[in-house]
Design goal:
Helix 4 links the parallel strand 6 and strand 7. 37% of the residues lie in helices and 18% in strands. The strands form four sheets. It has a seven-stranded mixed sheet with strand order 3-2-1-6-7-14-15, sandwiched between helices. It has 357 residues and is α/β, with parallel strands linked by helices. The protein is built from eleven helices and 15 strands. The protein has two domains: 191 residues, Rossmann fold; 132 residues, Phosphofructokinase domain (Rossmann fold, 3-Layer(aba) Sandwich), CATH 3.40.50.460. Helix 7 crosses helix 8. The radius of gyration is 21 Å and the shape is elongated. It binds 6-O-phosphono-beta-D-fructofuranose (F6P). The site of 6-O-phosphono-beta-D-fructofuranose (F6P) has 13 residues, from strand 12.
Length: 357
């Protein structure tokens, strides 16, 4: 028996831990695993792949990025523009199926976020046995309590805020940190709370510049010399729109730039010296946290189990401390967003964090 494995979407800490889990569990069943390079692109004929041997994947659990390569653009982008679903052209799909058949691959593990799992669903609906593994630093997938990569990204945001505190305090400044997350505010919310931000601006809560400025000035009155403001890249002011950095190419639009806009506006309104840092891809880089290593490995093992049990069209899911599975269809139907009235936002507000609403 031969199975295929590919990583789609942006790279994410913990991807190699999944590979480690898939290859290890498959080896115990006497199966071979072919790893396709650069996501679905590796399925285009003649096929770009490598045989993943258990002894070659032994030490990769701790490595960031992906030894297989990945892509969040290209022929098989399942989501485009502002998150619209794209139907993969039939001839591309047939080409991929030919490659898989020629190589004797009888099932495929697709590790990806919302876009790549939307593509996986189309493969399944066209008749190829597929199982999905949720991957995204954004933590925006429905039907799983969390994804690997999120904890690592939050840790980078937390460390960065810890460092920004130094300059903020020394210079009595407002420091704005723009973080990733696309249309979801999870990274900003968790990172902001953990790193001691006084304001957190997320896409789910349209903000008012005046309210954020007022909370900074109120902090001054209370004797705080500085303030840290975390802005999710998808955040937008009341009545405004998120800032798009780039709309070119296939795949989804690239967000980015709201941090600078917020910093300029807050400097104007507060009269305080303000600086902006855009954290960008540092959030996806480096080694996964121990939590993401373990979760990634468990997800990989569960994916193999789903194939063994012939439960195709399903995505590995983490629910109440257990790894189980759900229909891919349910996971990609809608993004998992922060509840503006939920317990975490309420708790943050209770300790004085301003959301600009
Ligand atoms: O989905 C993961 C993510 O890192 C988003 O948070 C971000 O908007 C996007 O990918 C960036 O993509 P790229 O690597 O193409 O710039």
């Amino acid at each position: 028996m031969r199975i295929g494995l590919l990583n789609g979407g942006g790279d994410c800490p913990g991807l190699n831990a999944v590979t480690h889990g898939v290859v290890g569990a498959a080896a115990r069943l006497g199966w071979e695993v072919l790893g396709f390079r650069d996501g679905y692109e590796g399925l285009l004929s003649p096929g770009d792949y490598k045989l993943l041997r258990v002894e070659k994947t032994e030490g990769i659990l701790k490595l960031g990025g992906t030894i297989l390569g990945t892509s969040n653009r290209g022929h098989f982008a399942g989501k485009v523009g502002e998150g619209g679903v794209r139907k993969i052209p039939a001839e591309l799909m047939q080409d991929a199926f030919r490659t898989l058949r020629k190589l004797g691959v009888s099932a495929l593990v697709c590790v990806g976020g919302d876009g790549s799992l939307t593509t996986a669903l189309q493969f399944y609906q066209e008749g190829f046995p597929v199982v999905g593994v949720p991957k995204t630093i954004d933590n925006d997938l429905q039907a799983t309590a969390t994804t690997f990569g999120f904890d690592s990204a939050v840790q980078v945001v937390t460390d960065s805020l810890d460092r920004l505190h130094t300059t903020a305090e020394s210079h009595s400044r407002v420091m704005v940190l723009e973080v990733m997350g696309r249309h979801a505010g999870w990274i900003a919310l968790y990172g902001g709370i953990a790193g001691g931000a006084s304001s957190i601006l997320i896409p789910e809560i349209p903000f008012s510049y005046e309210k954020v400025a007022e909370s900074i000035l109120e902090r001054e009155r209370l004797g705080f010399r500085s303030s840290l403001v975390v802005v999710a890249e998808g955040a937008a002011p009341l009545g405004g729109h998120h800032v798009v950095k780039d709309t070119s190419g296939e795949g989804e639009v690239r967000l980015g730039g709201i941090g600078d806009v917020v910093a300029t506006k807050l400097a104007e309104l507060t009269g305080k010296e303000t600086r902006c840092t855009r954290l960008g891809h540092l959030q996806r880089g480096g080694s996964p946290t121990s939590l993401d290593r373990v979760l990634g490995m468990r997800f990989g093992v569960e994916a193999v189990k789903l194939i063994e049990e012939k439960r195709f069209g399903r995505m590995v899911s983490y629910q109440q401390y257990h790894v189980s599975s759900v229909l891919i269809e349910d996971a990609v139907r809608k993004l998992k967003l922060v509840d503006p009235e939920g317990e975490i936002v309420e708790a943050a507000k209770s300790v004085g964090i301003c959301f600009g609403d």
